[in-house]
Each structure stands twice: as structure tokens, then as C-alpha cells.
Amino acid sequence: MNADKIPAWQRPEPVEEHRTNIVKVRLTDSELNLIKEKNPHASLSRFMREATLNAARSAAQIEQPKQKYSKSQRDTLIALSRIGTNVNQIARAINVDVKNLNDIDKTKLLILLLDIEKQLKELRPDDR
User: Fold this and answer.
1) What is the per-residue pLDDT across 26-78, written as a single tens digit (0 to 9) for each?
2) 101: exposed, middle or buried (C-beta count within 10 Å: 0-12, 13-18, 19+)?
3) Are 116 and 77 in the same domain?
4) Is the residue at 17 inside a domain?
């Protein structure tokens, strides 16, 4: 059939680029029946494409606000992260085998704990 003989309202809208990607979706029988019932288009793929793109565009318009931290807040978060790393290292070392630690290792753990306490006090200057 010649394209000129197809009524304008039946012609697909021209696309700037060709659709070459295929997305497979698994549906239950009831899901598929519901989609077929609510489909205003002759083509199931067109309905799925338009519904998905409309949903994606709506979601894109509702941008999540980006959290902006002040320099002091960022510094605090970094310091807390370092403290957490130290605590995890200490916990790991203790859980390995406390009974077999020699005096040097016990001293290292005590120094690490004192360092953590110092860092926590720096984060809370009002508690000094």
C-alpha cells in the first residue's frame, strides 16, 4: 500500500531516530489483560512506550532536592567517618582473639581508643 493513500490520522508520527532497542517485560495474565483493556492505541508497544515515557518525564520533573552541607558539616561527617573506621578496626582486632594479644597490641588498642575519644571531644567543643 502506498503511504500517500494512508489517512493522516493513521500515519505514525515521524521519529527523529530509529527505535532499535528492545525491552522485554514479563507480565501475569491479569496484568496483560488490564493493559489490553485500558489501551487506547491499536498498538500495545505504542501504549507501553508512551505510558513509560510519560511516567519517566513526570518523575524527571520532580527532582529530589540536593542536600548541601556547609564546610563545617562536611568536616564533621568526614571526622565521624574516620572515627567509625577506627572503631571498626579496633572491634575487628578485639574479636580476632583478645586472649592472645600481647602487651604491645593492647597498648596500640588503648592508644587508638584514646585517639577516638580525642576526636569525639573535638567534634563536641561545648562538652569540654
Assistant:
1) 989 998 898 888 888 788 888 888 888 888 877 766 666 677 788 888 888 88
2) middle
3) yes
4) no
- As a whole number of angstroms, the distance between CA 52 and CA 30 comes to 19
What grid cell was written down for 97? 582473639
Q: Do 75 and 55 have their domain in common? A: no
For residues 86 and 91, give the distance between their C-alpha atoms in angstroms, rounded to a whole number.
Answer: 9
Identity of residue 39 = N
Distances (CA, A) of 10 to 4, 14, 41, 73, 85: 11, 12, 11, 59, 64
Number of domains composing the chain: 2
Q: Give residue 56's domain range.
A: 24-64
* Averaged pLDDT, 92-115: 76
pTM: 0.35
First-residue to last-residue Cα distance in the chain: 87
d(CA 88, CA 11) in angstroms, rounded, equals 65
Give pLDDT, residue 89.
82
Q: Where do we find the cell 527532582? A: 63
